[in-house]
Task: inverse folding
């Protein structure tokens, strides 16, 4: 597969067809999250599949930019498990879970799905509310949500190569 294609064609999708995501496709998304790099290979990310409509609707109400979560067939909550996490890698846990989140979005794109990253870390009140809805223990912290489904419409890539953002040897 052309690796660049899903990267260059990915867009944030916020409306979805009324079609569920098959289990094998979902497993690929989770696998992509698990295969992300992590500091010292600490693999601190866990994944909570948000299948329950009522809980997803309650979550969608926490932030006004999350309304699409109500109509998405699937949500994946990426979690930071801080247990057993070495001090030397602790400061990288956010980056580890960001890499996992992006891997999920790219795996979605590669499989004909679309999704959008919903940011929640580092908002303590929102993280607490989500932990309450999904019974998440204290040592595990919500990091992000990806709302995923089959896109309602195609979205064209909207980026170009920007030369002035690239620096060689010196800023
Ligand atoms: C950390 C982060 C938080 C985001 N939070 C939201 C959000 O709450 N709601 C939303 O609709 N999109 C959210 N997005 C998606 C961005 O709005 C989107 O990536 C950006 O507008 C660029 O569009 P594109 O992804 O189609 O290239 C978030 C993206 C990131 C990386």
Result:
């Amino acid at each position: 597969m052309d690796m660049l294609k899903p990267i260059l064609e990915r867009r944030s999708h916020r409306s979805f067809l009324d079609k569920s995501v098959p289990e094998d496709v979902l497993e690929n998304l989770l696998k992509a999250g698990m295969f992300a790099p992590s500091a010292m290979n600490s693999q601190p990310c866990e994944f909570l599949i948000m299948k329950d409509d009522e809980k997803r609707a309650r979550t969608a109400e926490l932030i006004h930019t999350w309304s699409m979560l109500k109509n998405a067939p699937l949500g994946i909550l990426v979690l930071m498990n801080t247990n057993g996490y070495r001090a030397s890698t602790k400061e990288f846990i956010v980056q580890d879970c960001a890499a996992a989140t992006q891997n999920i979005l790219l795996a979605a794109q590669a499989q004909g799905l679309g999704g959008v990253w919903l940011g929640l870390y580092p908002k303590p009140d929102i993280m607490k509310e989500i932990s309450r809805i999904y019974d998440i223990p204290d040592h595990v912290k919500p990091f992000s949500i990806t709302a995923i489904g089959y896109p309602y419409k195609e979205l064209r890539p909207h980026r170009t190569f920007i030369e002035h953002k690239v620096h060689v040897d010196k800023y």
